[in-house]
Design goal:
The chain has helices at about 1-25, 30-35, 40-70, 75-100, 105-125, 150-175. Helix 1 packs antiparallel against helix 3 and helix 3 runs parallel beside helix 5. It has one domain. By secondary structure, the chain is mainly α.
Length: about 180
């Protein structure tokens, strides 16, 4: 059980180390879109959205890792409950931020970040109450930094499969940027 916790903590450490360069790329990607001829106003909105979405991406990564860990431990009701609670509040957050406060795209980015944070934090708190896996729940320690190579041998192909799936949607989004505001 302790090994499962160590492997999860390796994932947390790698997530945080990779999140920093990915964030830098995402925060400065607007010039690439402008270079390939995307509409300036759309690129500007996309960049504002990205500023407010980024904290949510960190929470999403940690939450997804926690969800996969819990599922591998045979605990699937907890991630489902946390996702459901977040889902119930996501719609009202979107309405409040985008319509009521008139934040438009920025409001949607904030709402997504709040929902991802809610799911992640609820899952982390409720995981602490699971007696079945309490031995596997601990903060990252020196063990978390050893065996990273073995972890990456499994993680990189898995990540590439996920990225290929996501990239297909990103290509559609990128293409839609050519339509402009009037479409």
């Amino acid at each position: 059980m302790r090994l499962a916790g160590t492997i999860m903590n390796r994932g947390r450490v790698l997530l945080m180390y990779t999140f920093i360069p990915i964030s830098m790329i995402l925060l400065s990607i607007h010039w690439v879109y402008l270079l390939v001829g995307q509409d300036d106003s759309i690129v500007h909105q996309m960049q504002h959205y990205m500023y407010y979405l980024l904290p949510g991406l960190a929470f999403y990564g940690i939450g997804d890792l926690q969800k996969r860990f819990l599922n591998s431990m045979g605990i699937s009701r907890l991630p489902m409950l946390c996702s459901f609670i977040s889902l119930v509040f996501h719609g009202p957050w979107v309405y409040f931020l985008t319509v009521y406060l008139d934040l438009k795209v920025v409001g949607f980015g904030i709402a997504v970040s709040i929902s991802n944070a809610t799911t992640c934090i609820l899952m982390l708190i409720l995981t602490l109450r699971e007696k079945k896996i309490e031995e596997a729940i601990f903060f990252p320690n020196s063990e978390s930094f050893f065996g990273i190579y073995e972890y990456l041998r499994i993680a990189i192909p898995s990540t590439m499969m996920t990225c290929m799936d996501w990239w297909s949607f990103e290509i559609m989004i990128f293409t839609s940027g050519y339509f402009g505001k009037t479409a």
